[in-house]
Amino acid sequence: MRSYRDLCGIARALDLVGERWALLVVRELLFGPKRFADLHRGLPGMSQNVLTQRLRELEDSGVLTRRRALPPGAGQVYELSDRGRALEPVLLALGQWGSPLPPVPESAMELSPDALVVALRTTFDPIAADDLHGSVQLELPGDAFHLTVNNGRLNAVRGEADADAVLTAGVRTIQDLVFDGRKLDDAIRAGDATAAGDKAVLRRFLNTFNDHRRIANLLP
């Protein structure tokens, strides 16, 4: 790995996680361990060779670890170490800083599931949430996240749990609902989404993301 050979802590951090794709690998592991194939699926623009190299570098740097998958899984999985998990606020701050920037013309049309949930966390507006206390289960194709709003904070974990409302849709549809102001009823009528449970909580949840119309103009 190349080094800036600079004593500054920022430079020393970038020595470990400043290579291209490195922080996006960390993003894909924020919500739990993944197999190599799952990581590559979330980062389709990254070649398998580069992914292998970044995983090796991040493991050598102590940012992630590799272990055997727990039964009934098989093979190996990668997960963040304590030092890797400490990068979460850094990634959220970068997401907040980068959201207003226009995407390059060839940007993908759809976020990865993990990138979607990170985007929800970085654009969540506690003022818009006001006194909302509730939970929403996001059911995505092949994935699921449990989101909880409490005391002006949005928390997210991968998996399924009892929730006040359940929203089942593809990532692109959720992008439209959150960032483009698409109406929930319109998505349901079009067959792009289904909703169960307390729809009032779900509608309030979908309106707790700040500057969604401005960000919508920047998304492909």
Please work out how many helical segments DSSP would assign.
12
Might you state the CATH topology name of the largest domain?
Nonspecific Lipid-transfer Protein, Chain A
Residue fraction in strands:
15-25%
- The CA-CA distance between the termini, in Å, is 34 Å
| Tally of DSSP β-strands | 7
Q: What would you report as the Rg, rounded to the nearest angstrom?
A: 18 Å
Main β-sheet: number of strands, strand sense, barrel status?
5 strands, mixed
**Which class of secondary structure composition applies to the elements?**
alpha+beta
* Residue runs with pLDDT of under 50 for 5 or more positions: 212-220
Shape estimate: globular
Helix content: 40-55%
Written description of the protein model:
The protein is α+β, with helices and mostly antiparallel strands. The chain has 2 domains: about 10-100, Arc Repressor Mutant, subunit A, CATH 1.10.10.10; about 115-215, Nonspecific Lipid-transfer Protein, Chain A. It has helices at about 10-15, 20-30, 35-40, 50-60, 80-85, 90-100, 115-125, 125-130, 170-180, 185-190, 200-205, 210-215, and strands at about 65-70, 75-80, 135-140, 145-150, 155-160, 165-170, 195. The strands form 2 sheets. Strands 5-4-3-6-7 form a 5-stranded mixed sheet. It has a two-stranded antiparallel ribbon with strand order 1-2. A hairpin with a 7-residue loop joins strand 1 (about 65-70) and strand 2 (about 75-80). The longest helix has 13 residues, at about 50-60. The chain starts with 8 loop residues before the first helix and ends with a helix. Mean pLDDT is about 90; it is low at about 210-220.
